[in-house]
Amino acid sequence: MQHIYYEVGSLDKKCYEKFALTEDILMEHAASSIARFIEENFEKKSSVLIVCGPGNNGADGLALGRLLYKEYEVKLYLPFGAKSQMAKLQKNRVELLGLTLHEEISESDIVVDALFGSGLNKDLDETSLNIINTLNQLNTYKIACDIPSGINIKGQVNQEAFYADTTITMGALKVALFNDEAKDYVGKIEVANLGIQRSIYEEKTNIFLLEKEDMNLPLRNKKNSHKGSFGHLNVIAGCKKGAGIIAAKAAFGFGAGLVSVVCHEDIDLPYHIMQTHFLSDNCTAIAIGMGLGKYETEEIKTILAKEIPTIIDADLFYEEIILEKLKSDVVLTPHPKEFCALLKLCEIADISVIQLQKDRFEYVSKFCNKYPKVTLLLKGANVLIGKDKEIYVNSFGTSTLSKGGSGDVLSGLIASLLAQSYNSLDAAITANLAHTLAAKNYKKNNYSLIPSDLVEEVKKL
Ligand SMILES: NC(=O)C1=CN([C@@H]2O[C@H](COP(=O)(O)OP(=O)(O)OC[C@H]3O[C@@H](n4cnc5c(N)ncnc54)[C@H](OP(=O)(O)O)[C@@H]3O)[C@@H](O)[C@H]2O)[C@@H](O)CC1
Ligand SMILES: [K+]
């Protein structure tokens, strides 16, 4: 997994104070990394429009122009002139080279957005907004320097932002790039080394970007085993029984030795899934909440009181009876609307989904600080998995998954791993990676996935 930071100013400061690097050196590396990307991906003589803002993001752009000059057709556009000291220095350098500044935006093979970076500190004025809208309409390859202009350091897009094909971010990964609102704008993300290796530049953090290698599938290594070796999951089915059945099927496909659906009425189940009216004696994990609807409160209380690994989803996030369970090691998988209800129930915040989506990291932190034993998986374009002080980000999410039933598959996958004795955090991480990577591997068009397709893809991982 890779490290993610709320800000990198303190890491830059370390470079100056501890390693005697200067701002100029860091900036030269920032610009060189974009130059290298262009040289590796585009033919010489291609035209490169670089839109430079008044601060150091613009200064990066000016330095890039200097590096590409002569080999590429460089068009520098500085709509606000150069205001920061570094921007003035870089502007002087390009002028000494004989590079002339352009007065307007024109079609080019590549556009580099170096308008605003980490210094975006207010709403975009009309001029900036017009520039960003015009750039977005160009039919060219788009590169954002550090962060697409219009996205603030929290990852919020309050008006509009630059739609990048690639973002080359300076020094280290930032939270701003992984808020859901930023997802459509950042494109592919690359990290530029600023003069020392990333492992030296970076410090300890408690936010991590998950990678495929972090997925620890429940592959069976022991030859001497039997079905009981892989646990017995009980899925509690409520009024919308389909949800529980989807979860049960996914859990079975992900390695649980036995799966039973707990339901009072007789239901049609595949032959390999059992039905029971009450919790099984040898139950090793419980999945509850999906499609539950109105269920007998006392019965839910009894189930939740069991000291058996449990995943809670959906309807239960609206019910006070789960509050006691939050003091224990349990997995919760709310989508944003359910998480807002939960935050209210827990008296942490009374906010709308829109407010939550603007500050997903903050509310996950608040919740996990209050309930450090809980593993919280907040669904979204980038899933956040929080446990105590740590947050893990899964950026493999795709709109292919935006369907009824996808969440039930995820609950089933997590529950399956809980039944197979994974700890809560490992179960949430591996199941969520499996869920998103399976969706990514699905070959048909991105609107057609149904839960059984997803389970089939999980089986092929
Ligand atoms: N630190 C380092 O060592 C390194 C830093 N590096 C680079 O520096 C970047 C950060 O530079 P930065 O701090 O100068 O901020 P930046 O993003 O250029 O914006 C500030 C300017 O924009 C203006 N402005 C802001 N919002 C606005 C708005 N809505 N509408 C209009 N104007 C607005 C703001 O105006 P002011 O607030 O002064 O009125 C100010 O003039 C960082 O992203 C990375 O690319 C790399 O080279 C690596 C080494
Ligand atoms: K930018």
Question: How does this structure look, described?
Answer:
- With 461 residues, the protein is α/β, with parallel strands linked by helices.
- It folds into two domains: 201 residues, YjeF N-terminal domain (Rossmann fold), CATH 3.40.50.10260; 247 residues, Ribokinase (UDP-N-acetylmuramoyl-L-alanine:D-glutamate ligase, 3-Layer(aba) Sandwich).
- It contains 15 helices and 19 strands.
- It has a twelve-stranded mixed β-sheet with strand order 8-1-10-19-18-17-16-15-14-11-12-13, with helices on both faces. It has a seven-stranded parallel β-sheet with strand order 4-3-2-5-6-7-9.
- The mean pLDDT is 95.
- Bound molecules: ligand NPW and potassium ion.
- Ligand NPW binds next to helix 2 and helix 3.
- Its cofactor is K(+); Mg(2+).
Output the keywords.
single chain, 461 residues, alpha/beta, Rossmann fold, UDP-N-acetylmuramoyl-L-alanine:D-glutamate ligase, 2 domains, twelve-stranded mixed β-sheet, seven-stranded parallel β-sheet, 19 strands, 17% strand, binds ligand NPW, binds potassium ion
Summarize the structure.
By secondary structure, this protein is of the alpha/beta class.
